User: Fold this.
Amino acid sequence: MASDIETRLKTLMLRGLGGDAAAHAELLGVLTVYLRNFFARKMGRSAADLEDLVQESLLAVHLKRDTWDASQPFTAWAFAIARYKLIDWFRRNRIRRTEPIDDASDLFASEDSTELSARQDLGKLMGHLPPKQRALLEDVKLAGLSHAEAARKAGMTEGAVKVSIHRSLQVLMKRVRDEN
Amino acid sequence: MKTDELIAILARDAGPVKRGAIPRSLAALAFGGALVALVIMVPWIGFRPDFPAALADPTFWMKMAYTFGICAAGFLLAERLARPGATGRAGWLLLAACALAIGALAAGQLAMTPAAEIDVAVMGGSWDSCPWYILALALPGLAAILWAMRRFAPTRTALAGAAAGLLAGGGAATVYGLHCDENAAPFVAVWYSLGIALTVATGAIAGSRVLRW
Assistant:
């Protein structure tokens, strides 16, 4: 099973790095399930921050994806990110870690898709973005506008919209961290 | 925003990614850092008095090989430690090989040195300034490399900072070798290494603070 998931995720990652948005979305979707289960086991299922940490990890996987070397196992790379985010959370919450988290199979142990907290909302975090960037993110996602449409609405070029979205995501990741 | 919506936004941001950004930027900054060290060093303390005649001296090249080897090991380690979950075995091996080589050379030279002259072989004439010059010359490059590393994803921040220090320190020590006319292996093994170690320690302390993401 472990090598199956490696092959599957690696294929998706390579396609995503090549610019295949659907493969990238699928990759993040699969990772979300594993991340939820992993963090639930480590943080305690009731932890209010669980979905925050999932989202923070997804942002990191996305924004840091150029740090994955294709000669390296993808699962080890993804696990190292999840582990880093988890240890960071322990540290921020002054929780003394009792068990080592050293094995990548920890992350990919269970693919039960328990809907843990659909209630999670990043809305409060979006509030940290400058209004223009925030409006752009909301237009592109929530209203489903294409980059071209969002560009017309904001009076920007399509390239500028893309750059602005990318910057907003970077700001978002930084703010999620600083807030916690 | 629900997680599904976040994923949709991230997918919209998923343009093709350029590969090889880490080695390219680390190599460029290490080279740039060494160049800055040279530009600082020349008007400050200048080239060694026997330069460029010293280029014909094999012991000069022994020293260059050691410091450049350390710099290369720092590059390999920093390039790996900038990535989550990578170990950097090649860098550790090269670092160990450099340490063994300079240690063996130094021990060999000391074995052939009369007891009365051992002090001079180890302490040379500039032991008290050599490590500090190396540290000072390394700082601009170290700052640049750490700054670049913030964009990557080091999961062991102190270790990644230390690797940045090894890279910058090895480069600065190589540049400093153009000023310093001490060629004895024991001197290089102790005082050059100490200068590099000071840079590594600075990198580790700075890294654990500035490299979090």
Notes: The mean pLDDT of chain A is 81. Chain A touches chain B through 56 residues (CB under 8 Å). Helices of chain A lie at 2-17, 21-43, 50-63, 74-92, 123-126, 131-142, 147-154, 158-179.
